[in-house]
Write a structure and sequence with these properties.
GO terms for molecular function: 4 iron, 4 sulfur cluster binding; metal ion binding. One of its GO terms (cellular component) is cytoplasm. Pfam families: Fer4_7 (PF12838). InterPro entries: 4Fe4S_Fe-S-bd, 4Fe4S_Fe_S_CS, PSI_iron-sulfur_center, YfhL-like. The chain is an alpha+beta fold. The chain has helices at residues 49-53, 69-80, and strands at residues 24-26, 31-33. The chain has one domain (16-80): Alpha-Beta Plaits. A two-stranded antiparallel ribbon has the order 1-2. The two termini are 19 Å apart.
Length: 83
């Protein structure tokens, strides 16, 4: 699944630079994650880096975007030009 940022986000700016895919950007009110770029850090790290640094724990899995690890790896390969 792609990750999402909930409205509990405090705009602390720590998640955006941690995303290896550039999937996180400033939205209208809070940061947002582009689900087409989010691989949950599959291919880069063992755990999603944005979740690791978020001080308010507001980055859960997006239930509307179920993806397997294989699908996430395929997306990673496409994004990095390896696919």
């Amino acid at each position: 699944m792609a990750l999402m940022i909930t409205d509990e986000c405090i705009n602390c700016d720590v998640c955006e630079p941690e995303c290896p895919n550039g999937a996180i950007s400033q939205g209208d009110e809070t940061y947002v994650i582009d689900p087409n770029k989010c691989t949950e850090c599959v291919g880069h790290f063992d755990e999603p880096q944005c979740q690791q640094v978020c001080p308010v724990d507001c980055i859960p899995l997006d239930p509307d975007r179920p993806e397997t690890k294989e699908q996430l790896m395929e997306k990673y390969n496409t994004l990095t030009g390896q696919g």
